[in-house]
């Protein structure tokens, strides 16, 4: 018997089986499991309790450690992702090292996924037996404390990123706000009015945009993208690519004279901000309130970039300000931050993917965002809602759920379309006095003052027709109108309604590059492609990577109030980490057992973090615990078993394997 | 072969993708066969070939490794190590008379709760058809000898 085996025989394990109300007890025969556990070698005490995570449940552990001289604790309950920390803490409070604890997942992995009660009970027993055998070998460990950098990186300058950045900056933290477009503001800057209050989007957004620019604690980088992320919570090193604007931000005063002076007398390039509904010049500003208030040159269309033979009237008129610099080059900036907030937003569903609605085929079929631009006073028509030929529409049909709640595109509800469709119905009616028809599947207006807004719009005489539009086609009499064919499910009849303008209430989708972005930041995505939160209810802004938080539509479709609330939450979570000044890391790192290491160096190339080095004097490998992230790949690779991983030692896992397979 | 043979599957799931997928299956109340026993490791790259051998030697009828999809490893490339070891080990196991269906490596991301169900059910069915490993005619030596 080795010394360790000997000390193992005296180990006293306490096993606690949680009912979790009926969540576990409804499927697993708790009594049976407790009796079984009590009879296992080394088990000094086995108990059941209705809710182990409750205060009395935790108190039970604390008290039993004293009364029964327990030195190992096992709780069979929910997933360790939920309550491992809770019970480690209780173990510690009882006077033991917190790592003398092992959790057994009998809820998510057992009672919730099996219907056969006997089989589920047997599974619970196997898992507990494995844990008892494993926990005997646990060693006392200490969490590593590392200092946390107080700077925060916010990626994305829409309303989510703006709000998060301002909150953090106001708390005195230095914030880098990185936005890939020439201006911040995001989608919200493109909207006209916001539901349900109908306050103008620009009026509430632009003061916040200006505040970002003027805030001493915010470093705003537009036309910039994150290209590399290294490090770990508290200590991220991030590379940011700053694309050239060809206009020096410090020198440009935003007089816009250069735009006027451009050799292009007429604007010819489709304007991205207005979704191509208007034209801009090669030197332009996205919209009048853009932040930074600095023009940008598009090298794709600028004559100087294409031929090098432009008269450069822009430079001439800029004069002594000397703000235009055709030589500007891309720059890579490296910054060090403690935490990161991702607020990379969404993309609007491409309406062309539903061919029977005729977007891109019939000129008077447009998307809701296009109508937002039309109805906006600074938009391409100066705020008038017009057909492509310049006439005012007399009738408008708004089709809900385009690219949402649809087997062929996206199954999920985009959450905002019903409300913005009602808002557009109101605005269109107000501006054109047209007959407005809203075609909906279900009217979804849950939210503060949302139902009231729905009643208001319904009261204004908007026709609300329950049915999914099946086809859009030109009226046969050639008067330019479009016919919407729909089954009105309240009247139980097919209707054909002629309108001048069709508005498609397009849904929200993840950004096109969401997959690349999530890999960059080492986080997950849900099936729809939105960034995955750590817990849908209890950690909605956290990710599975510590120190990286989510805000806004990159996590899922949501409206502006929810986005702002989430951005505030992400900022608060970030602050909580940064303000603590340090962060505690799991001690699950690897270490080399020098006496057995043969110096073969197999482990060195398998480490993705270059944490293992070779010490020539000793002819041994050495793990740098600061760099080690605890994956254990080197441990599995070591041919002589001379690398061990804390919490996942070979012997501990062998015991677990034997435990699940030992037939009682 | 007994009619109601219930195979024992030992599953090594990585902490960041597949273990979470199994948690998600739980919160979504997705039902699947109760034959698998999950052992959590931080990364599929931690799965030492010895763990797999030990499991078979101790009476497992099948061993499943679950990791993050290629390119998605929480530790950048641990799952590639797992893949390389898996391929080699499966050939070795085959030479030892352990059928390929008994040893699987699956990429299951944290959002694929339903894939946990599909993979475990499928594996249980396939291994059930093969019968218990201990009685498999393919395995020539008594289990104790392998375990020793």
Please, could you describe this protein's structure?
- The complex is a heterodimer of chains A (664) and B (148).
- By secondary structure, chain A is an alpha/beta fold.
- Helices cover 29% and strands 23% of the residues of chain A.
- Chain A has 19 helices and 34 strands.
- A 5-stranded parallel sheet of chain A has the order 10-7-6-18-29, covered by helices on one side. A 5-stranded parallel sheet of chain A has the order 20-27-21-22-23. Chain A has a 4-stranded parallel sheet with strand order 2-1-3-4, sandwiched between helices.
- In chain A, strand 32 and strand 33 form a beta hairpin.
- The longest helix of chain A has 21 residues.
- The two termini of chain A are 24 Å apart.
- The model of chain A has no long low-confidence stretch (mean pLDDT 95).
- Chain B is of the alpha/beta class and 148 residues long.
- Chain B is built from 5 helices and 4 strands; from the N terminus they run E-H-E-H-E-H-E-H-H.
- Chain B is globular, with a radius of gyration of 15 Å.
- The model of chain B has no long low-confidence stretch (mean pLDDT 90).
- At the A-B interface, helix 5, helix 6, helix 18 and helix 19 of A face helix 1, strand 2, helix 2 and helix 3 of B.
Write the topology of this structure:
The complex is a heterodimer of chains A (664) and B (148).
Chain A: H1 3-9, E1 13-18, H2 30-38, E2 43-49, H3 55-67, E3 72-77, H4 80-93, E4 101-105, H5 107-111, H6 117-135, E5 144-147, E6 152-155, H7 159-170, E7 175-178, E8 193-194, E9 199-200, H8 201-214, E10 218-221, E11 224-232, E12 235-242, H9 257-261, E13 269-270, E14 279-280, E15 283-284, E16 296-297, H10 303-307, H11 313-318, E17 331-337, E18 339-342, E19 346-348, E20 365-367, H12 368-375, E21 395-402, H13 417-432, E22 435-440, H14 450-459, E23 463-466, E24 469-474, E25 482-488, E26 493-499, E27 501-506, E28 508-510, H15 514-520, E29 548-550, H16 560-580, E30 582-585, E31 590-592, H17 603-606, E32 612-615, E33 620-623, H18 633-637, E34 643-645, H19 650-661
Parallel strand pairs in A: 1-2, 1-3, 3-4, 6-7, 6-18, 7-10, 18-29, 20-27, 21-22, 21-27, 22-23
Antiparallel strand pairs in A: 5-30, 8-9, 11-12, 12-17, 13-14, 15-16, 19-28, 24-25, 25-26, 31-34, 32-33
Helix pairs in contact in A: 2-6, 3-4, 6-19, 7-8, 7-16, 12-13, 13-14
Chain B: E1 9-14, H1 18-27, E2 36-41, H2 49-57, E3 62-67, H3 78-95, E4 103-107, H4 113-130, H5 143-147
Parallel strand pairs in B: 1-2, 1-3, 3-4
Helix pairs in contact in B: 1-4
